[in-house]
Amino acid sequence: MSTRWFSESLYPDFKQSFSISEIVYEGRTEFQDIIIFQTQRFGRVLALDGIIQTTEVDEFCYHEMIAHIPLVAHGACKKVLIIGGGDGGTLREVLKHPIEKAVVVELDKTVIEICMRHLPSLSGGAFDNPKTDLRILDGLTYVRETHEKFDIIIIDSTDPIGPGKALFSEIFYRNCSKCLNENGILVTQSGVTWMQSDVARKTFENLNNIFLDADFFLAQVPTYGAGFMTFGWGCNNKISKMISRNELERRMSKLNLNTKYYNSSVHRGAFFLPGYIEALKNIR
Predict the structure, then answer these.
(1) Which of 187, 32, 42 is nearest to 17 (CA)?
(2) DSSP 3-state of 66
(3) Is 49 a catalytic residue?
(4) Nearest-CA neighbor of 203 among 194, 190, 192, 185?
(5) CB 97 within 8 A of CB 77
(6) For residues 79 and 102, what is the distance between their CA atoms, to the nearest angstrom?
(7) CA distance 29 to 128
(8) I need a surface site. Which of 7, 13, 30, 110 has the fewest CB within 10 A?
(9) Are 139 and 84 in contact (CB under 8 A)?
(10) CATH number assigned to the domain with residue range 5-55, chosen from the 4 options 2.30.140.10, 3.40.50.970, 3.40.430.10, 2.50.20.10
(11) What top-level class would CATH report for the domain 59-281?
(12) Residue of 156, 159, 198, 215 with catalytic role
């Protein structure tokens, strides 16, 4: 009997394939195609429009880093805005902190519902937490029109194609910056830099036009093949990024985060970039 494979369609000249044990769910939402399938190595895998979003086994590498880097760096976060993040993994990690409120703005309600049903470990009940305020609407519209202010904004979007494309524009980041409190921090996924260097370069350029401190930090996510996962960072001070090891340890000892990837050494090291990624910050 032949084995069925799922091949990701993100790049025209490179693909990775997953051996499918079982199709758990397959269909189309109002906005995008969705499939969840079982694999032997990565557990259940979520793909949207043919692009891998996350897996049960290695999702913590991504979600811990996109959440804990900015929240620990800030040190006194009360309100968080998550744009995207329909699988719930980022929200789950954010709620490990003593925040007052997490607003999640997600365009596609069906993704949330399907992930809660078929990938429940990702959200871990986070959407039912009383601190969660879920808004089903367009993130661009929300940040343009809202009067709410946040300490942290996390843009946990899909890749810059389809519904996620507009979430990489300078006007979107500028509208996000208006929603930040003083010393607020914005972070955004900016792709696997070895394969998506143009995305990372443009992300940095946009953030650099808006924030006093624009940078990248890194994570290694096994599912995202061919390089480091890069996150964009924007803040209007450089103090948040320059926390001493002792202060990091002090903050983390209070939090008891119970993480598998993130720790104080990884926090500090995430901002030390390989030369080929550092070079993307050279704006002409």
Answers:
(1) 42
(2) helix
(3) no
(4) 190
(5) yes
(6) 6
(7) 22
(8) 13
(9) yes
(10) 2.30.140.10
(11) alpha beta
(12) 156
Domain boundaries, the chain: 5-55, 59-281
> CB neighbours of 128 closer than 8 A, spacing ≥ 6?
none
Cα–Cα distance, 119 to 24 (Å, whole number): 10
What is the rounded CA–CA span in Å between residue 37 and residue 50?
12
Residue 3's pLDDT is what?
Answer: 75
- Whether 247 and 163 have beta carbons less than 8 Å apart is answered as no
For 102-140, give one letter per residue: b (16+ CB within 10 A) or e.
Answer: bbbbbbbebbbebbbebbeebbeebbeeebbebeeebbb
Residue pLDDT, tens place only, 131-152: 999 999 999 999 999 999 999 9
Q: What is the residue whose two structure tokens read 């997953």?
A: 18
